Amino acid sequence: MNYTNYSVFIRLLYRLPCYILGLVLFSLILLAISAFVPRKWHSYSQTNCDIQICVSNTGIHSNIIVPTKNNIYDWHKFFSLSKIGVDTALNYNYLSFGWGDKDFYMLTPSLSDLNFSTTLKALFIPTPSVMYVKGYQVIPTDLEVKCIRVSKNDYSRLIEYVQGSFQLDTKKKTVRLGNGHTVNAGFYAAVDSYSILRNCNSWTASGLRRANINTPLWDGLSAAIIFHLKNSCKVK
User: Fold this and answer.
1) pLDDT tens-digit series, residues 125-142
2) Chain centre distance of CA 136
3) 186/188 Cα distance (integer angstroms)
4) CA dihedral sign of residues 95, 98, 102, 107
5) Distance in angstroms (rounded) separating the CA atoms of residues 185 and 189
6) Which residue, among 215, 204, 203, 167, has the nearest Cα to 188 in the 3D structure?
7) Terminal-residue alpha carbon distance, the chain
8) Could you tell me how many helices (H) and strands (E) the chain has, helices first?
9) pLDDT number for residue 34
10) Which of 3, 59, 65, 151 has its CA 20 to 30 A from that of 157?
């Protein structure tokens, strides 16, 4: 390498951190914009929207909330609702479903419990996942919750999606892994791996799209999902 080429190489080497920082900032700006851009610009025109579903936002996770029983599906047929949490005397009218990284979800009940190594592993290494199931007697008021109505067919597709996220044993039963962060919640084995490209909010958004509900172009943030959540068809 001659002196001229060497000088050019050194200058590029010194500028490399600036290029990397610029690329990172550009990517973050692009993601931020994508969080406000809907995947569909047109409205869904179906008219028989008589089933309500809700989505909750904990600040980190988003969860799908559905009735425990209606004229479309009864969750008692899928697993024992009395065994979801440690308080077996509770009767639930609604169930909340969330999907996420096994270690992060089970070991991080709140932001104050955030662990750097667990978070880093969840972001950059494909890891096992869990389903977080929580029972409610009424729609929770201590969280940001937004509810909309969907058609029976769309609701059925959403239920199939949620069920398909559970890992089943040889007897086709759900596998409970442990107690949740409250007396009315529990963790269950799930399918698929968690990664930075498919996180807990991506799971929620995928389920909503199965039900013809609009979601953001980038669905990695729970707040973005709530922002775009609107009725996907006309209410009768």
Assistant:
1) 668 899 999 999 999 999
2) 18
3) 7
4) negative
5) 14
6) 167
7) 76
8) 6, 7
9) 59
10) 59
